[in-house]
Amino acid sequence: MSTRLAITLLIYGMVQAVLFGAGAVAVLATPLRDQAAIMLPLVVVVSAGLAIPFAWKIAPLMRAAHQRRMARRNDLNHA
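Structure (tokenized):
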């Protein structure tokens, strides 16, 4: 398993939760509330599907940030 895939799997749930929360607020805070019984399951499915590419795009950014932090720490330790 690649590092990118491992990071993607780790953050998938968090990304999906944020997308679901945004979708749920959008449904419940607008006139769509009347159709919440139909819209909320749709929000669940859409957020689960959209979380995959979002997590895939975020994973390398998180890895790069970690590598920069480790490089900076090593530079400080060797200075």
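The CA atoms of residues 18 and 41 lie 15 Å apart. The chain has a mean pLDDT of 92.
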